[in-house]
Amino acid sequence: MSSTTQLLVGIHLYRSLLKEARNLPDKNAATHFTNKIKSDFRREPLPESSTKAVKRVKDAQRLLRQLQATNDGYLHSLQRTLETSYERRGAGKHQLLRAFTLPSPTPHFSRPLSVLLTSPLSHTSRPPTPSQLLKPPTLPPRADPTSEEYRLLGPLIPQRIKSIKKRYWRTQVGKVRAPVAVRVEGEGQKEGLREIGLKRWEYEKGLERLGELERRAGVSVQGRPRAPKRSQPPLERLSRETGPGESPHESQLPPQDSPIFRDEKNRPDRILPPTKSTKWSLPKSLTPRLLRRRYQEILATSPVLVVGPKKGEDGEERNMKVVLSEMAKGGIGLVSEMSEEDEWWLERAAGEEEVKKGMKGKRRE
What we know:
This protein has 15 helices and 3 strands. By secondary structure, it is mainly alpha-helical.
């Protein structure tokens, strides 16, 4: 840590943090970090000689460097800042997972948590199978009464089996991605959440969070880049024509005084130099296209838990599945629907392939 960093304490550090937080390119991120900084500095001050007070100052200085790097255009810091503000990492993520991991004397995998763990969309590594959740693979052979080790060495004590299962539960919960929203199909959303054991889940807030990410990750049809004219249907060419000197992209760009188009001359003076870390590579210009891609990457790691409608009065359990947003990176939301002309070309290509195969068969005969 440089001497300049060590001098930034107290009111100067507080003002620098607020200044950087208000200049963030995302409105929700600016609000999130502004409230966080104010609440952290309003806590009861600890003695200066305490190690906790020193750690608190170092954490604030680290946050200041992160916000400065975000405003400078470093992708690693920008992605981290957006994920924190949209509760994809940090304390916000753990707060969302609390609804799935209710405190109990013996940790167990609830049904919604099991659905998240066994899905590759919500697991950061290879997801376990449902049988592995019931019987963890980390259990030694002596835990199985039918094994040879059990016959020769005897059974394990119950305390060790309980600790192994608890450790496996903590490991798997640490690898799961918190769902950005829970969507209940049919009527009775609150009743559906109560049936699957998610009474503490904030339903409306989750859908609002998902809608905000999709709105920022998507772009209207008029703002998308045009396909080549030879591949455009006639109706699309007529509907998207513009007059001389007009551009279909101008209405999609934010105003020039937006923080996205900040010029180097108008940037606030750096109180601390940006961190020169190799993992941040070179800074980028914060354009609308770059920010859309960041939101699409966030949606790619933000699963949505879909709860099916109620089947009947027989008490059958609702079906649950994990999906991703259509606006996620690699999803189907950015691909236009197939037109009648596209279907005609596909049918023609399929017919030509059948004709070629028939001609090859006749030549062999």
